């Protein structure tokens, strides 16, 4: 028979609040409730009316498309999102194939693509392929400065550009061909901006760039939508523990709050919501996006965060990567084509980009992925756009975006009669008040140490007798998997495990009879 006894280091049944019902928050809740008998009193406060955070599946007509998280990056045994998706039966046979999990490709290499010049020429695979090889060779080189004492330049962008300047000198081509090659290289810069969630690679710190870790496996998608994962996690939790439309205003910590009824206990944390409701807890796990923290850190915590944590929030990067889904009546691309790109001949990575967003925002679209298989999606392109241009795009109407991109396709294909898309759906992550962007990156002036500082619980002088009151999770708190769903999930598990360990350790050897 087991007797529940209060430990000298805290209550036998601690109360935990989790702020945010994204993957980090739901993962933490599931781990606490299923991983330890100590945790029965867990609640999740979600600011919006839905769970999933930056996992959001949308519908274009009746076709499911991903507005947020798109791929499982590195679907292998080490990837907890892949493991959960496999367990819940959410993946197809191709994704589950053993050989798929072992491929070392660093992402999702696309098959046949079509690259047009802005003057309406279909460019040869040879010239586009050679520029892709050059770009990714240099990008790999830029990962090699992780432990060097002094980096040659501050940013990944500057490193790439300096290397390209040297390569251009060796090209035997005429000036027109050189210009075209540079325009093609600029496509790869834009693609990498989307991958890193940044306006410019000049903002991405060179030294820590190689710390981001890629898992093996051929990136895969959820046939019925990424939200299937959210739904399975929600179904695994007791009904009613996730409270929606509960926007947190302030996390009050390092104090003592008496709950007269029903417990008569003192709690060290009080979470106040915008609607005035207050919740008391022993611990709160904060999983809000870094973009939200950047905007609200000074008012969100009382007392304020320690200076080094505030500095880490300021210094780490957080950018916008949006998607534009376009549905066509008939495809203007070949059946086996997997990506469409446009090389703007007036652009070069070595030149200053235009600041006239209204006139040129659409040139920042890095490319359009053709959604496959056609039997499932029909004829849908998914365009990716990052940075200030992505934020500007959010201010436009659907009609304005459709008109601009129709002109791009007509110009690129040389067909002024090309029919416009019949439907559009796009993400607007920068306008989302609880997100303010897409995901984090390590910016100039920051390092992986800032990620660790952000992840450090409060108060800083925690000990066995003084457990942490405020814990931090979310993709921006994972040093090697930032910007990913598996990083978010692992960070939620990390903080849940931290609490489980504390209460397991605090248990007296004589507390069970």
Characterization of this structure:
The protein has 513 residues and is an alpha/beta fold. The protein folds into two domains: 15-55 and 242-317 and 441-506, FAD/NAD(P)-binding domain (3-Layer(bba) Sandwich), CATH 3.50.50.60; 107-220 and 321-431, Polyamine Oxidase, Chain A, domain 2. The chain is 34% helix and 17% strand. The strands form six sheets. Strands 5-16-17-18-15-19 form a six-stranded mixed beta sheet, sandwiched between helices. It has a five-stranded parallel beta sheet with strand order 6-2-1-12-21, covered by helices on one side. A hairpin with a 5-residue loop joins strand 8 (257-259) and strand 9 (265-267). It is globular, with a radius of gyration of 25 Å. The N and C termini lie close together (6 Å). Mean pLDDT is 93; it is low at 1-11.
How many discrete structural domains? Answer: 2
Give start-end ranges of low-pLDDT stretches. 1-11
User: Strand fraction band?
Assistant: 15-25%
| CATH fold-level label of the largest domain | Polyamine Oxidase, Chain A, domain 2
Structural classification: alpha/beta
CATH top-level class of the largest domain:
Alpha Beta
Total helix count? 16
* Overall morphology: globular
Biggest sheet architecture: 6 strands, mixed
Which value, in Å, is the CA radius of gyration?
Answer: 25 Å
Write down the oligomeric state: single chain
Strand order of the largest sheet: 5-16-17-18-15-19
Into which percent range does the helicity of residues fall?
25-40%
Kindly state the mean pLDDT as a whole number? 93
What is the tally of beta strands? Answer: 21
How far the N terminus sits from the C terminus, by CA atoms, comes to 6 Å
CATH architecture of the largest domain: Alpha-Beta Complex
